[in-house]
């Protein structure tokens, strides 16, 4: 069964380590803030000028002036700070973010990412994505494995305009968790009840499959 948005965020959260500074991109990545594992402290950074982003607010915690880069209202963790976007991008460009989590339209076997533009559709621009992929060594992309038309988003070569080249090392989709190295996708884990054959069928780029592919260990999502 394909992972839900919440389960994708849960699995990404398992990659967080104590003391990490983490930037969360727009979309599914923002949900990671709700699933930081107990017993570790991370500082979540938002490119619009917030370090120490907390979970999404309850109705009682809601502050319309406190938002993330996707204009969603958020909370602030203990020790958080607010600053202008110039300082925020200095952190990103200076390599001070330990992990970046981004969405994407396409990723290919060379670690290229296309995440900001579909030709013929109106867009506002690339935003901070180019800085994020250029300034971080550790990037996880999270996205659906295939389009709504069943076309693979994991390609031999990206077909859309690139956000960055050779910068993506890991991809988490609703079907699988993969590492990119040596010009290939390497299958690390599969979503519960998803077969290796289904993953292979929906992966257009070369896929390396080990003898044993474990299922992801995920908690149940409570509605």
Automatic annotation (TrEMBL):
GO molecular function, one term: acetate CoA-transferase activity
Domain of life where this protein originates: Bacteria
Coiled-coil intervals, chain numbering: none
Pfam families tied to this protein: CoA_trans (PF01144)
Alphabetized SMART domains for the sequence: CoA_trans (SM00882)
Keywords: Transferase
NCBIfam families named among the record's database cross-references: pcaJ_scoB_fam
Organism from which the protein derives: Pseudoalteromonas carrageenovora IAM 12662
Family annotation (PANTHER family): KETOACID-COENZYME A TRANSFERASE, SUCCINYL-COA:3-KETOACID COENZYME A TRANSFERASE SUBUNIT B-RELATED
The keyword Transferase is assigned to this record: yes
Protein name (database record): 3-oxoacid CoA-transferase subunit B
EC number: 2.8.3.8
Family of this protein: Belongs to the 3-oxoacid CoA-transferase subunit B family.
